[in-house]
């Protein structure tokens, strides 16, 4: 009797072991496929590893889902506006107009920032005014902003849940057919982290693959020279291939500040008029410039820093020559600086996205 019971117990143990292993194997088979960022050589040389949240690891299925969502107007109130409507690949994921139009032709208030190298935003603040603290959190706001997509998350979730293919895609990416704002924004963030730009002419120069023209070389020298352009403090250098400090500055656009920028987020008057320094990569594709798109050309941007600075109570100390109106570049230095800045543009990034 004891022997028979022993055999019975062994049999049950074997059955549940097989069941457990088969269930585990099944879950492994259905798990999303891990993916890694293709980190550029210059980034590895000069920058610490990208910031990748542990609760949203990159997967092939999550990235593919995020890309589809990025280009899908279902996320908007009237199914007319997608993320790509204001962040177009041909413009390095920015817009060609000063202020983008959302649903019902509503006009925005800020210029659409370009999207690339977002996994290296070490400030972990997003938008011009730093109102969001992660890519996942950043993706929440445009959906409900009445001047952008003008929808609600319950409506967006309902449309995606009722869609013919989205529930299966969410299951492949996140292990559940139930759609919610968390998984939507996680997928979008995964895709956006794969938008990496690091193949400009200047990148190739730093890798020893091409030479700069004399004009581009002088333009770089102007950029790095504290007595001339003095641009590198806010916008990086050959040792910072992001070409931004990802910090917030009042760069002397206005004597009277009407858009307080970071100050509205922090509540600190000392932050009034401060906006995030954008990357100088891909300037050939991202006009107009500044947080409000006030400058249509690079010449206007350079002229601003050369002779157009305006003093205000929160002007950044790095605007050292504000009392003189700017750094006072010669016409040749202006022209050469522009040539260098354009050498930071990555045509392959635009062509491949």
Report on the architecture of this protein.
With 353 residues, this protein is mainly α. The chain is 41% helix and 1% strand.
Average pLDDT, rounded to a whole number, is 92
Question: Biggest sheet, in brief?
Answer: 2 strands, antiparallel
Distance between the termini: 71 Å
What is the strand tally? 2
**Count of helices?**
16
Shape estimate: globular
Order of strands in the sheet with most strands = 1-2
Order of helices and strands: HHHHHHHHHHHHEHEHHH
Gyration radius from CA atoms, angstroms:
25 Å
Q: List segments where confidence is low: pLDDT < 50 over at least 5 consecutive residues.
A: 1-26
List its traits:
353 residues, two-stranded antiparallel sheet, globular
Task: Produce a short descriptive summary.
With 353 residues, the chain is mainly alpha-helical.
Set out the fold topology.
Elements: H1 2-30, H2 41-46, H3 60-70, H4 83-86, H5 135-138, H6 140-144, H7 153-161, H8 166-174, H9 181-193, H10 201-206, H11 214-224, H12 232-235, E1 248-249, H13 262-266, E2 275-276, H14 298-307, H15 331-342, H16 347-351
Antiparallel strand pairs: 1-2
């Amino acid at each position: 009797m004891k022997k028979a019971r022993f055999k019975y117990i062994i049999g049950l143990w074997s059955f549940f072991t097989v069941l457990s292993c088969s269930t585990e194997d099944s879950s492994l088979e259905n798990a999303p496929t891990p993916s890694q960022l293709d980190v550029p050589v210059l980034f590895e040389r000069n920058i610490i590893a990208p910031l990748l949240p542990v609760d949203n690891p990159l997967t092939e299925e999550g990235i593919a889902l995020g890309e589809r969502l990025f280009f899908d107007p279902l996320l908007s109130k009237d199914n007319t506006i997608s993320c790509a409507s204001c962040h177009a690949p041909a413009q390095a994921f920015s817009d060609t107009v000063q202020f983008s139009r959302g649903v019902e032709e509503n006009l925005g208030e800020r210029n659409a920032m370009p999207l690339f190298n977002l996994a290296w935003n070490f400030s972990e603040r997003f938008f011009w005014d730093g109102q969001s603290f992660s890519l996942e959190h950043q993706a929440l706001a445009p959906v409900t902003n009445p001047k952008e997509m003008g929808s609600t998350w319950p409506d967006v979730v309902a449309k995606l849940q009722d869609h013919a293919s989205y529930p299966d895609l969410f299951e492949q990416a996140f292990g559940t057919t139930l759609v919610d704002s968390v998984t939507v924004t996680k997928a979008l963030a995964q895709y956006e982290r794969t938008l990496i730009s690091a193949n400009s002419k200047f990148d190739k120069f730093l890798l020893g693959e091409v030479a700069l023209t004399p004009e581009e070389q002088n333009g770089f020298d102007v950029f790095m020279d504290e007595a001339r352009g003095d641009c590198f403090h806010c916008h990086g250098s050959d040792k910072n291939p992001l070409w931004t400090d990802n910090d917030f500055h009042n760069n002397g656009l206005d004597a009277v500040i009407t858009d307080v920028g970071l100050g509205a987020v922090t509540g600190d008057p000392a932050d009034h008029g401060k906006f995030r320094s954008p990357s100088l990569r891909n300037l050939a594709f991202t006009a107009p410039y500044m947080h409000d798109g006030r400058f249509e050309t690079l010449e206007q941007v350079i002229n601003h820093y050369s002779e157009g600075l305006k003093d205000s109570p929160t002007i950044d100390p790095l605007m050292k020559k504000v009392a003189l109106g700017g750094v006072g570049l010669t016409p040749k230095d202006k022209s050469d600086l522009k040539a260098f800045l354009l050498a930071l543009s990555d045509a392959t990034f635009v062509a491949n996205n």
